[in-house]
Amino acid sequence: MTRQLLSTGSEWSFELIDKYDRELARIAADFKLDTYPNQIEVVTAEQMMDAYASVGMPIGYQHWSYGKEYLAVENRYRRGQMGLAYELVINSNPCIAYLMEENTMTMQALVLAHACYGHNSFFKSNYLFRAWTTADSIVDYLVFARGFIGECEQRYGETAIEELLDSCHALRNYGVDRYKRPPQLSVERETARRRERDEYRQAAVNDIWRTLPTRDAVQDGASDERFPAEPQENLLYFIEKHAPLLEPWQREIVRIVRKLAQYFYPQRQTQVMNEGWATFWHYTLLNRMYDEGLVDDSFMLEFLTSHTNVIAQPGFDHPYYRGVNPYALGFSMMTDIRRICETPTPEDRQWFPDLAGTPWLGALDFAMRNFKDESFVAQYLSPKLIRDLRLFSLIDDDREDAYAVSAIHDDNGYRRIRRALAEQYNLGSREPNIQVNAVDRRGDRSLTLRHIPFERRPLGESTGDVLKHIARLWGFPVRLETLDVNNKPELVGHAHPAN
Amino acid sequence: MDSIVDRRLNGRNKSAVNRARFVRRYQDQLKRAVADAISKRSIKDLERGERVDLPRRDIREPVFHHGGGGYRESVHPGNKEYSAGDRLPRPAGGAQGRGNQASDSGEGEDDFSFVLSREEFLNFFFEDLALPDLVKTELTRLPRYKSVRAGFTTSGVPTNINVIRSLKSAAARRQVLQAPYRTRLKGVETQRDALVVGRGRAPELEALDEEIARLKRRIRAVPFIDTIDLRYNHRIKQPQPTTQAVMFCLMDVSGSMDQGRKEIAKRFFALLYLFLTRVYERIDVVFIRHHTQAAEVNEEEFFSARDTGGTVVSSALMLMQEIIAARYTSAAWNIYGAQASDGDNWHSDSSRCRELLEQEILPHVQYFAYVQVGAEEEQGLWQQYAATSAAHPRLAIRKINTVADIYPVFRQLFAKKPA
Q1: Would you call B351 exposed, middle or buried from its count of C-beta atoms within 10 A (0-12, 13-18, 19+)?
Q2: Which of A163, A253, A327, B105 has a Cα-to-Cα distance from A7 of 20 to 30 A?
């Protein structure tokens, strides 16, 4: 316990980062954290903003929306509304983490622990990331995507690509197969297969549209099969495969947007868990370093100040309230699981009989591997935490003229609050459920989408614009139906391609 | 297995292309913003970037999302007094699904604002002026520096080595470093001479010879030239021309000059100002407005105030001449004149103007530009000026109906003059 301090003062150097990284790696291995190798990159504030603007892709294709993002970040940073995030970490192998040069040594250590050991191990082990992303090849795929889109811009003009990407981005959240594991990505394969795929796809598309019917068929209408046979939830995939007028290179771009959306899909579903996990581990790792005498009191004070800021949860009536802070909720839940394992109360034994009294490291590891936000909250939110955070649930029903408090932190309310909070993280209910319902193959070739409302929630005001984008991709009219209370479809919007 | 990479030296403007695309995509809105900014700004103040606001709904990327309404249940922290079954009035303004629920439509309705850089701003400014590219680059350029000699330094690139200086310091160094050996050598040689004369013993002689040889070796070992001897020509950057100029803006503010014509005139003055800032370090601007009488005013009054009544142009020219005589007589001032008018003038005054211009003003000024704004037919003043301009290359006249007509006035000014 009488080890040497690793450093004093706030100056960092590459040697020090290396030293801290070694110590953290040793302690993380003690805790059995399984990580990808790290690639730690020291960047300037401007480079950090660059990285930020490209939504965490180390190499992005070029599009105005990233420019907009950059301006927004820069603007907020200049006005001092936003401290830049201390860190940015990319789910790749090796795991790329950015450190800002302005940080103090303490902050660098915090970021190392948070990103290089917390997020990194989460990326490597959580089932969604394992199923949906391939960390080994994402950087290569991004290089391929950027190259391909750049090539298309040269050949077909920037405007054409920009419009196509705009349309694809509008459907970005509808480009995921929720129930199928996607095949692995790899550059060589992508490039090699591209040409082959182009030809094949064009042929397949032609096949669907080979509708010069024999006279008989028109007369008896017997072969009026429904297409698609079943509703399709992956709109981008459907367009990529079946849109009649797209050129092969356009299909390839649709595919790129779809693949990237898929890559980010797990991150959208595990925000609480991912941040909670990383925060729990930076807290645990740095405290262990302090216990071992590797860092001094001033280090800990600085670290705890920013740690406390990160997990601050203002109450609902606070001017800074922006909803539940995922860092706060995730960190509290991870800590709470450890508490239930180590020092369970009778209440915990009743609520979590399988958890109370078991080794905490194994329990936490299991939770991290096998859940997403929705199921994690539904499984692990404890009555004690509900009391600590003083959670309550509120019903906003447009048929009533007032909000109603449906549950608070008492015996009658725990389960309801837990279910409501879990539901809040359910992507399926957060985003409107819209599926491809039918294609009119014999008539005007129109595409009919069907919206199945959730809790009677209507669609937002930008729906019309999205339909225009879909019409641009589809090339023929697009209709949108909503099922009303009696499950009768009702036309709520339509769009025609511009030319 | 972990690697640490220093990326700070890598290019930083990775987003520059995306930013440029964003600006291009919204150029119509931005052009409007820039035009607004120009009309608000002082003409001396055109070279800044500008903060512009775009309505957020214009730049939103649409996605499917839930609108307000329907049934939703949300969980919030920090309960103080509520218990199950309480009913709370809905807040005014219809903020449905408080807080995080509506996060998919996320951003508020306030404007998206950012700062256009100086180049971007000037590009928009130049866009409808139909400037040739060469001129645009000339104007967007930052002040030019001239590199001048400034003595010598001890570090630099090999091409800048100053041979004479370097050899001088080498010589000095050799002198100093060899001096102790030379003194000793002299002493030893005298000793030896004495010994030879006195037929000294051989071993002593031998020792002295050895010592002499050693000292000579030491003297030879001092290098002829060393890196510390090197001297380089030193050059520093000096801002280019440091002369001063005064620019006279003359404008007719009689009733016929409406707001549109004044805007065109303002662009004209602003462009002249920009041209002059390329050439002169310090520029004074004098604003003279006139109807039947002329007055020197500040910029704000110059562009905003509006008078009615007739027009006597010569009053402005006379005032200009008086001001030159009173304040800008010395040869240190380069004088530029710019006059904007709709061409209307008191009938018999135009010939007086010509006289004033030819005799009193043109001999003093570098350049005088006259623009007739918004009126097609050639007014009396125009005819008189046209006659003058034929004889005086320093006078440029032009009819301007749109802002695109402004630039040709400057073509002559901008052309390279024989020294």
Answers
A1: middle
A2: A327
